[in-house]
Amino acid sequence: MTFTIDRPEIRNAINNEVTAGLEELVEGAQHPSVRMVIITASGKQAFCSGGDLSVFHALRTEQQSYRMLKRMSDVLYSIKTLPVPVVAVVNGAAVGGGCEIATACDYRLVWDHAKCGFIQGTLAITSGWGGGTYLLETLQHDQALKMLSEAKVYPANELKDFGWATIIVQEDQDIKAFFERMKTIHPDVHRAYKEMAIRKWQKTDLQERVEQEVRRCAVLWERDAHHEAVDRFLNKTKKRNPSS
Ligand SMILES: CC[C@H](C(=O)O)C(=O)SCCNC(=O)CCNC(=O)[C@H](O)C(C)(C)COP(=O)(O)OP(=O)(O)OC[C@H]1O[C@@H](n2cnc3c(N)ncnc32)[C@H](O)[C@@H]1OP(=O)(O)O
User: Could you say which residues form the signal peptide (predicted)?
Assistant: First the structure.
């Protein structure tokens, strides 16, 4: 199954409609005929620019933001624990929550022009969809902490050095070759290894650790520093496009 985020004009930002689409993806991926799930996006400029600030800036309080963060973190946990391999084809910039979505996947095939990073810190919040927890699961500790706390974007070669990018993609053939290799192995083997990973996450309270991340982000969300940072971003847009 392939899910394509299709809002290129807004750099594939996540709104409630995309969240609902991801929830449908999780439902559909339960079918026994599904061998793997691919998440990608339209265009070449962005995989996903995180939450849609033009929508989510209306969430002012800890409780209001918690509801959005919790819904998205639940769907990302369901994606992470799907019984089949989940592959992010990172077709462009993955920032903020967009980086969290890609990190929730098992593999990240990153186009060579894509710059990715956990930029939530520039908005005076932390990751809030589970991506910080998943990064700490995935990368060497110091690399994960560096990626989270620097709150900056990195080019594909650095993402590969960190161990975040599974492969760097320079042409469509690189993606084709990745899936051709996957298909040489029986789906039952992929499912069995995924089950081993899920059992490890269940035994190490991964879902509870995500819940703590969500609650921490919601606390920071309510503070002035976050709302002022979002207003600066949206005002920059307005200056560029007075009609917007
Ligand atoms: C817990 C997760 C957390 C949350 O929301 O809950 C987050 O995800 S926090 C992080 C939120 N995301 C951002 O702060 C990223 C903002 N966007 C960018 O940094 C850039 O747009 C980038 C790097 C993704 C792409 O840069 P590029 O120069 O290619 O494009 P523009 O910046 O000119 O953007 C084009 C157009 O799209 C609008 N846009 C882009 N991202 C968002 C967004 N996340 N929410 C709302 N709107 C977005 C941007 O304002 C431009 O609009 P226009 O009217 O055409 O000027």
Answer: none
